[in-house]
Protein backbone atom coordinates (compact mmCIF):
# COMPACT_ATOMS: atom_id res chain seq x y z
CA UNK A 1 0.00 0.00 0.00
CA UNK A 2 1.35 3.42 -0.94
CA UNK A 3 1.52 5.58 2.19
CA UNK A 4 1.59 8.69 -0.02
CA UNK A 5 -2.06 7.98 -0.83
CA UNK A 6 -3.00 7.85 2.86
CA UNK A 7 -3.71 10.68 5.29
CA UNK A 8 -1.14 10.27 8.06
CA UNK A 9 -0.89 12.42 11.17
CA UNK A 10 2.15 12.57 13.44
CA UNK A 11 1.51 13.84 16.96
CA UNK A 12 4.35 14.73 19.32
CA UNK A 13 3.12 15.32 22.89
CA UNK A 14 5.34 17.82 24.74
CA UNK A 15 3.98 19.17 27.99
CA UNK A 16 5.69 21.94 29.91
CA UNK A 17 5.96 20.33 33.32
CA UNK A 18 8.91 18.03 34.04
CA UNK A 19 10.18 17.19 37.51
CA UNK A 20 13.37 15.29 36.66
CA UNK A 21 14.65 17.86 34.13
CA UNK A 22 12.92 21.29 34.20
CA UNK A 23 11.88 22.30 30.68
CA UNK A 24 13.09 18.92 29.44
CA UNK A 25 11.40 19.00 26.05
CA UNK A 26 13.28 22.11 24.93
CA UNK A 27 16.58 21.65 26.76
CA UNK A 28 19.44 22.25 24.27
CA UNK A 29 20.99 19.09 22.91
CA UNK A 30 24.05 19.59 20.69
CA UNK A 31 22.81 23.07 19.84
CA UNK A 32 19.13 22.28 19.23
CA UNK A 33 16.09 21.82 21.51
CA UNK A 34 15.30 18.17 22.18
CA UNK A 35 11.88 18.63 20.57
CA UNK A 36 13.49 19.71 17.28
CA UNK A 37 14.95 16.27 16.65
CA UNK A 38 11.56 14.54 16.55
CA UNK A 39 10.05 17.23 14.33
CA UNK A 40 12.96 17.09 11.87
CA UNK A 41 12.89 13.29 11.75
CA UNK A 42 9.15 13.36 10.95
CA UNK A 43 9.68 15.98 8.24
CA UNK A 44 12.21 13.69 6.52
CA UNK A 45 9.96 10.60 6.66
CA UNK A 46 8.86 9.23 3.29
CA UNK A 47 5.34 8.62 4.60
CA UNK A 48 4.99 12.44 4.66
CA UNK A 49 2.87 12.91 7.78
CA UNK A 50 1.29 16.13 8.93
CA UNK A 51 3.17 17.07 12.11
CA UNK A 52 1.40 18.44 15.18
CA UNK A 53 2.86 19.16 18.61
CA UNK A 54 0.39 18.86 21.48
CA UNK A 55 1.47 21.15 24.31
CA UNK A 56 0.23 23.26 27.21
CA UNK A 57 3.35 25.44 27.15
CA UNK A 58 3.73 28.65 25.10
CA UNK A 59 7.53 28.40 24.87
CA UNK A 60 7.34 24.83 23.59
CA UNK A 61 4.73 25.98 21.07
CA UNK A 62 7.11 28.69 19.81
CA UNK A 63 9.93 26.18 19.39
CA UNK A 64 7.62 23.74 17.59
CA UNK A 65 6.48 26.48 15.20
CA UNK A 66 10.08 27.50 14.56
CA UNK A 67 10.89 23.96 13.39
CA UNK A 68 7.80 23.67 11.20
CA UNK A 69 5.15 21.86 13.27
CA UNK A 70 1.52 22.79 13.78
CA UNK A 71 0.30 23.34 17.34
CA UNK A 72 -2.68 22.04 19.27
CA UNK A 73 -2.91 23.57 22.74
CA UNK A 74 -3.50 20.87 25.34
CA UNK A 75 -5.91 21.65 28.22
CA UNK A 76 -4.34 21.78 31.69
CA UNK A 77 -6.62 19.00 32.93
CA UNK A 78 -4.78 16.50 30.71
CA UNK A 79 -1.31 18.00 31.07
CA UNK A 80 -0.22 16.60 34.41
CA UNK A 81 2.58 14.12 34.97
CA UNK A 82 0.05 11.35 35.61
CA UNK A 83 -2.04 12.02 32.49
CA UNK A 84 -1.56 9.47 29.73
CA UNK A 85 -0.13 10.17 26.31
CA UNK A 86 -3.29 8.62 24.90
CA UNK A 87 -5.33 11.50 26.35
CA UNK A 88 -3.18 14.01 24.43
CA UNK A 89 -3.49 11.99 21.22
CA UNK A 90 -7.26 11.67 21.50
CA UNK A 91 -7.65 15.37 22.30
CA UNK A 92 -5.58 16.29 19.23
CA UNK A 93 -7.68 14.07 16.96
CA UNK A 94 -10.93 15.50 18.36
CA UNK A 95 -9.65 19.09 18.05
CA UNK A 96 -8.59 18.69 14.42
CA UNK A 97 -11.90 17.06 13.49
CA UNK A 98 -13.95 19.80 15.15
CA UNK A 99 -11.93 22.77 13.88
CA UNK A 100 -10.88 21.52 10.42
CA UNK A 101 -12.94 18.44 9.65
CA UNK A 102 -9.58 16.66 9.45
CA UNK A 103 -9.65 12.91 10.07
CA UNK A 104 -6.44 10.94 9.31
CA UNK A 105 -6.29 7.22 8.60
CA UNK A 106 -3.06 6.53 10.45
CA UNK A 107 -1.68 8.13 13.60
CA UNK A 108 2.03 8.25 14.42
CA UNK A 109 2.87 8.95 18.05
CA UNK A 110 6.45 10.20 18.49
CA UNK A 111 8.15 10.68 21.83
CA UNK A 112 10.23 13.85 21.75
CA UNK A 113 12.42 12.45 24.52
CA UNK A 114 13.90 9.98 22.00
CA UNK A 115 16.09 12.35 19.92
CA UNK A 116 18.08 9.60 18.18
CA UNK A 117 15.03 8.47 16.21
CA UNK A 118 15.51 8.79 12.44
CA UNK A 119 13.03 9.15 9.59
CA UNK A 120 13.68 5.52 8.61
CA UNK A 121 12.46 4.42 12.05
CA UNK A 122 9.19 6.29 11.55
CA UNK A 123 8.73 4.86 8.05
CA UNK A 124 9.72 1.41 9.27
CA UNK A 125 7.08 1.39 12.01
CA UNK A 126 4.39 2.58 9.59
CA UNK A 127 5.46 -0.10 7.08
CA UNK A 128 5.31 -2.77 9.80
CA UNK A 129 1.68 -1.85 10.53
CA UNK A 130 0.71 -1.91 6.85
CA UNK A 131 2.70 -4.99 5.80
CA UNK A 132 1.40 -7.05 8.74
CA UNK A 133 -2.13 -5.70 8.25
CA UNK A 134 -2.02 -4.80 11.95
CA UNK A 135 -4.04 -2.31 13.97
CA UNK A 136 -1.05 -0.92 15.85
CA UNK A 137 2.73 -1.04 15.74
CA UNK A 138 5.69 0.00 17.85
CA UNK A 139 9.44 0.31 17.60
CA UNK A 140 11.46 -2.26 19.53
CA UNK A 141 15.06 -3.34 19.84
CA UNK A 142 16.52 -6.83 20.46
CA UNK A 143 16.73 -7.71 24.16
CA UNK A 144 19.24 -10.30 25.37
CA UNK A 145 19.36 -9.73 29.10
CA UNK A 146 18.18 -11.81 32.06
CA UNK A 147 15.49 -10.21 34.24
CA UNK A 148 15.11 -10.92 37.96
CA UNK A 149 12.51 -10.08 40.59
CA UNK A 150 11.56 -11.07 44.13
CA UNK A 151 8.61 -13.29 44.94
CA UNK A 152 6.32 -12.86 47.94
CA UNK A 153 8.72 -14.66 50.24
CA UNK A 154 11.56 -12.37 49.22
CA UNK A 155 13.40 -14.97 47.16
CA UNK A 156 15.05 -13.83 43.90
CA UNK A 157 13.45 -15.47 40.85
CA UNK A 158 14.00 -15.31 37.12
CA UNK A 159 11.38 -13.56 35.01
CA UNK A 160 12.35 -14.40 31.44
CA UNK A 161 14.49 -17.43 32.37
CA UNK A 162 14.71 -20.23 34.89
CA UNK A 163 17.53 -20.15 37.42
CA UNK A 164 17.30 -23.95 37.61
CA UNK A 165 18.28 -24.36 33.96
CA UNK A 166 20.52 -21.60 32.71
CA UNK A 167 20.32 -21.44 28.91
CA UNK A 168 22.94 -19.81 26.73
CA UNK A 169 21.82 -16.42 25.44
CA UNK A 170 21.73 -17.63 21.85
CA UNK A 171 19.39 -20.47 22.88
CA UNK A 172 16.76 -18.15 24.35
CA UNK A 173 13.64 -17.32 22.37
CA UNK A 174 13.94 -13.89 20.69
CA UNK A 175 12.79 -11.07 22.94
CA UNK A 176 12.40 -7.36 22.26
CA UNK A 177 12.51 -4.21 24.35
CA UNK A 178 10.00 -1.42 23.73
CA UNK A 179 12.06 1.65 22.75
CA UNK A 180 9.43 4.24 23.63
CA UNK A 181 10.29 6.12 20.45
CA UNK A 182 7.64 5.40 17.80
CA UNK A 183 4.06 4.09 17.95
CA UNK A 184 1.63 3.82 15.04
CA UNK A 185 -2.12 3.18 15.11
CA UNK A 186 -5.08 2.97 12.80
CA UNK A 187 -7.07 6.00 13.91
CA UNK A 188 -10.56 4.50 13.87
CA UNK A 189 -9.55 1.53 16.02
CA UNK A 190 -7.49 3.68 18.39
CA UNK A 191 -10.36 6.09 19.00
CA UNK A 192 -12.63 3.17 19.89
CA UNK A 193 -10.18 1.44 22.24
CA UNK A 194 -8.27 4.49 23.54
CA UNK A 195 -5.26 2.17 23.70
CA UNK A 196 -2.06 2.63 21.65
CA UNK A 197 -1.72 -1.17 21.42
CA UNK A 198 -5.15 -1.72 19.92
CA UNK A 199 -5.91 -5.03 18.18
CA UNK A 200 -3.09 -6.88 16.46
CA UNK A 201 0.30 -5.28 17.03
CA UNK A 202 3.31 -5.32 14.70
CA UNK A 203 6.93 -4.57 15.60
CA UNK A 204 9.65 -2.59 13.85
CA UNK A 205 13.14 -3.54 15.02
CA UNK A 206 15.19 -0.41 15.65
CA UNK A 207 19.01 -0.47 15.92
CA UNK A 208 20.10 -0.50 19.55
CA UNK A 209 22.41 2.50 19.11
CA UNK A 210 19.37 4.71 18.34
CA UNK A 211 17.42 3.66 21.42
CA UNK A 212 17.59 6.22 24.21
CA UNK A 213 14.91 7.97 26.26
CA UNK A 214 15.89 11.12 28.11
CA UNK A 215 14.54 10.87 31.65
CA UNK A 216 17.45 11.93 33.86
CA UNK A 217 20.14 14.67 33.50
CA UNK A 218 22.80 12.02 32.82
CA UNK A 219 20.81 10.93 29.76
CA UNK A 220 21.48 14.31 28.12
CA UNK A 221 25.24 13.75 28.23
CA UNK A 222 24.84 10.28 26.73
CA UNK A 223 22.43 11.57 24.08
CA UNK A 224 24.79 14.35 22.99
CA UNK A 225 27.63 11.85 22.59
CA UNK A 226 25.47 9.53 20.49
CA UNK A 227 24.07 12.38 18.39
CA UNK A 228 27.56 13.55 17.46
CA UNK A 229 28.50 9.97 16.56
CA UNK A 230 25.30 9.59 14.56
CA UNK A 231 25.88 12.83 12.63
CA UNK A 232 29.43 11.81 11.75
CA UNK A 233 28.30 8.37 10.62
CA UNK A 234 25.44 9.73 8.47
CA UNK A 235 27.55 12.53 6.97
CA UNK A 236 30.35 10.12 6.10
CA UNK A 237 27.84 7.93 4.26
CA UNK A 238 26.57 10.96 2.29
CA UNK A 239 30.04 11.79 0.96
CA UNK A 240 30.90 10.35 -2.49
CA UNK A 241 31.99 6.71 -2.45
CA UNK A 242 35.34 7.83 -3.81
CA UNK A 243 36.28 11.36 -2.72
CA UNK A 244 38.85 12.66 -5.20
CA UNK A 245 38.96 16.37 -4.32
CA UNK A 246 37.74 19.08 -1.93
CA UNK A 247 36.75 22.60 -2.99
CA UNK A 248 36.22 25.58 -0.67
CA UNK A 249 34.65 28.97 -1.07
CA UNK A 250 36.65 31.56 0.90
CA UNK A 251 34.48 34.28 2.46
CA UNK A 252 32.05 32.74 4.94
CA UNK A 253 33.81 29.37 4.82
CA UNK A 254 37.47 29.96 5.67
CA UNK A 255 36.41 33.26 7.28
CA UNK A 256 33.50 34.29 9.48
CA UNK A 257 32.13 36.34 6.54
CA UNK A 258 32.99 39.63 8.21
CA UNK A 259 35.56 42.14 6.98
CA UNK A 260 37.54 44.65 9.01
CA UNK A 261 38.19 47.92 7.18
CA UNK A 262 40.84 50.31 8.47
CA UNK A 263 40.68 54.09 8.06
CA UNK A 264 43.00 53.89 5.03
CA UNK A 265 40.77 51.32 3.32
CA UNK A 266 42.81 48.20 4.05
CA UNK A 267 40.66 45.09 4.56
CA UNK A 268 41.39 42.13 6.81
CA UNK A 269 39.49 38.99 7.72
CA UNK A 270 39.33 36.58 10.65
CA UNK A 271 40.20 32.90 10.18
CA UNK A 272 40.25 29.94 12.55
CA UNK A 273 43.57 28.26 13.34
CA UNK A 274 41.82 24.91 13.81
CA UNK A 275 40.64 25.16 10.18
CA UNK A 276 44.27 25.49 9.16
CA UNK A 277 45.12 22.32 11.07
CA UNK A 278 42.26 20.53 9.30
CA UNK A 279 43.61 21.51 5.89
CA UNK A 280 47.13 20.51 6.97
CA UNK A 281 45.86 17.03 7.87
CA UNK A 282 44.04 16.83 4.52
CA UNK A 283 47.13 17.85 2.57
CA UNK A 284 49.05 15.00 4.20
CA UNK A 285 46.62 12.54 2.55
CA UNK A 286 47.50 13.87 -0.92
CA UNK A 287 43.88 14.82 -1.65
CA UNK A 288 43.61 17.68 -4.21
CA UNK A 289 42.26 20.85 -2.56
CA UNK A 290 41.44 24.28 -3.99
CA UNK A 291 39.79 27.54 -2.96
CA UNK A 292 37.53 29.24 -5.52
CA UNK A 293 36.56 32.78 -4.57
CA UNK A 294 34.88 35.76 -6.17
CA UNK A 295 36.86 37.97 -3.79
CA UNK A 296 39.55 40.13 -5.43
CA UNK A 297 41.33 41.12 -2.21
CA UNK A 298 44.87 39.75 -1.95
CA UNK A 299 44.03 38.36 1.49
CA UNK A 300 42.68 35.23 -0.23
CA UNK A 301 46.01 34.46 -1.92
CA UNK A 302 47.94 35.31 1.24
CA UNK A 303 45.90 32.93 3.37
CA UNK A 304 45.96 30.14 0.80
CA UNK A 305 49.71 30.46 0.35
CA UNK A 306 50.14 30.05 4.09
CA UNK A 307 47.88 26.99 4.03
CA UNK A 308 49.79 25.59 1.06
CA UNK A 309 46.79 25.23 -1.25
CA UNK A 310 46.05 26.75 -4.67
CA UNK A 311 43.26 29.27 -5.23
CA UNK A 312 41.28 30.99 -7.96
CA UNK A 313 40.38 34.57 -7.01
CA UNK A 314 38.16 37.23 -8.59
CA UNK A 315 36.07 34.47 -10.18
CA UNK A 316 32.78 35.58 -11.75
CA UNK A 317 31.59 32.08 -12.67
CA UNK A 318 32.64 29.57 -10.03
CA UNK A 319 31.28 26.57 -11.92
CA UNK A 320 33.46 27.32 -14.96
CA UNK A 321 36.49 27.63 -12.70
CA UNK A 322 35.59 24.38 -10.95
CA UNK A 323 35.32 22.52 -14.26
CA UNK A 324 38.67 23.88 -15.46
CA UNK A 325 40.39 22.74 -12.24
CA UNK A 326 38.70 19.32 -12.37
CA UNK A 327 39.71 18.78 -16.02
CA UNK A 328 43.30 19.84 -15.38
CA UNK A 329 43.52 17.35 -12.52
CA UNK A 330 41.50 14.61 -14.30
CA UNK A 331 38.87 14.63 -11.55
CA UNK A 332 35.22 13.62 -11.95
CA UNK A 333 32.81 16.27 -10.64
CA UNK A 334 30.69 13.58 -8.97
CA UNK A 335 33.70 12.58 -6.85
CA UNK A 336 34.22 16.12 -5.55
CA UNK A 337 33.04 17.80 -2.34
CA UNK A 338 32.22 21.53 -2.47
CA UNK A 339 31.85 23.65 0.68
CA UNK A 340 29.96 26.95 0.37
CA UNK A 341 27.87 29.45 2.26
CA UNK A 342 26.02 31.73 -0.19
CA UNK A 343 23.83 31.59 -3.29
CA UNK A 344 26.75 32.02 -5.70
CA UNK A 345 27.95 28.60 -4.50
CA UNK A 346 24.74 26.78 -5.41
CA UNK A 347 25.68 25.93 -9.03
CA UNK A 348 28.86 24.23 -7.90
CA UNK A 349 27.14 22.45 -5.03
CA UNK A 350 24.56 20.96 -7.41
CA UNK A 351 27.18 19.72 -9.88
CA UNK A 352 29.51 17.92 -7.49
CA UNK A 353 28.98 14.63 -5.70
CA UNK A 354 28.37 16.30 -2.34
CA UNK A 355 27.45 19.91 -1.62
CA UNK A 356 28.27 21.03 1.92
CA UNK A 357 26.97 24.11 3.74
CA UNK A 358 28.49 25.73 6.80
CA UNK A 359 26.06 26.06 9.70
CA UNK A 360 25.45 29.79 9.21
CA UNK A 361 25.04 29.60 5.43
CA UNK A 362 22.23 31.32 3.52
CA UNK A 363 18.92 29.42 4.03
CA UNK A 364 18.73 28.52 0.31
CA UNK A 365 22.18 26.95 0.52
CA UNK A 366 21.28 25.00 3.66
CA UNK A 367 18.08 23.71 2.07
CA UNK A 368 19.94 22.31 -0.94
CA UNK A 369 23.07 21.01 0.80
CA UNK A 370 23.75 17.29 1.15
CA UNK A 371 25.52 17.98 4.44
CA UNK A 372 25.02 20.90 6.82
CA UNK A 373 27.96 21.28 9.17
CA UNK A 374 27.50 22.00 12.87
CA UNK A 375 30.16 24.73 12.83
CA UNK A 376 29.92 28.24 11.36
CA UNK A 377 32.18 29.54 8.62
CA UNK A 378 35.53 30.71 10.00
CA UNK A 379 34.74 29.00 13.30
CA UNK A 380 35.72 25.38 12.75
CA UNK A 381 33.59 24.40 9.74
CA UNK A 382 36.64 23.62 7.58
CA UNK A 383 38.14 21.48 10.35
CA UNK A 384 34.83 19.62 10.66
CA UNK A 385 34.52 18.74 6.96
CA UNK A 386 38.23 17.94 6.79
CA UNK A 387 37.86 15.32 9.51
CA UNK A 388 34.77 13.85 7.83
CA UNK A 389 36.62 13.55 4.52
CA UNK A 390 39.67 12.02 6.21
CA UNK A 391 37.41 9.45 7.85
CA UNK A 392 35.90 8.66 4.44
CA UNK A 393 39.36 8.33 2.88
CA UNK A 394 40.31 5.86 5.59
CA UNK A 395 37.23 3.78 4.74
CA UNK A 396 38.12 3.96 1.03
CA UNK A 397 41.58 2.62 1.67
How would you explain this protein's 3D organization?
The chain is an alpha/beta fold. The protein has two domains: 3-234, Spore Coat Polysaccharide Biosynthesis Protein SpsA, Chain A (Alpha-Beta Complex), CATH 3.90.550; 242-396, 3-Layer(aba) Sandwich (Rossmann fold). Helix content is 35%, strand content 20%. It has twelve helices and 19 strands. The chain has helices spanning 34-44, 58-66, 85-100, 119-131, 187-193, 217-238, 273-283, 299-307, 318-328, 346-351, 363-368, 381-396, and strands at 8-13, 28-29, 32-33, 50-55, 70-73, 106-110, 136-143, 148-150, 156-158, 175-186, 201-205, 245-248, 260-261, 267-268, 289-292, 311-312, 336-340, 354-357, 371-372. The strands form five sheets. A seven-stranded mixed sheet has the order 5-4-1-6-10-7-11, sandwiched between helices. β15, α8 (299-307) and β16 form a beta-alpha-beta unit. α6 (217-238) packs across α12 and α7 (273-283) packs parallel to α12. The longest helix is centred in the middle third of the chain and has 22 residues, at 217-238. The protein starts with 7 loop residues before the first strand and ends with a helix. The model has no long low-confidence stretch (mean pLDDT 92).
Amino acid sequence: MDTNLMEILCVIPARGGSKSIPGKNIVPLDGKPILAYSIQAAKKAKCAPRIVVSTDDDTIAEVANLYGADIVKRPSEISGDKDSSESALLHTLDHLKKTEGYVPEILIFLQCTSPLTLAEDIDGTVDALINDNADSALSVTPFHYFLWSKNRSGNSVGINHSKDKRLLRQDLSPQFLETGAVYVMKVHEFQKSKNRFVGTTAMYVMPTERCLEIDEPSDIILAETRIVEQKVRISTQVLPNHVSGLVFDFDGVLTNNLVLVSENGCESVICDRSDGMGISKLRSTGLPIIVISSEVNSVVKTRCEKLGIPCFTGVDNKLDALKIWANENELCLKDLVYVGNDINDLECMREVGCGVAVNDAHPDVISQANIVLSKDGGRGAVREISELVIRKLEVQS
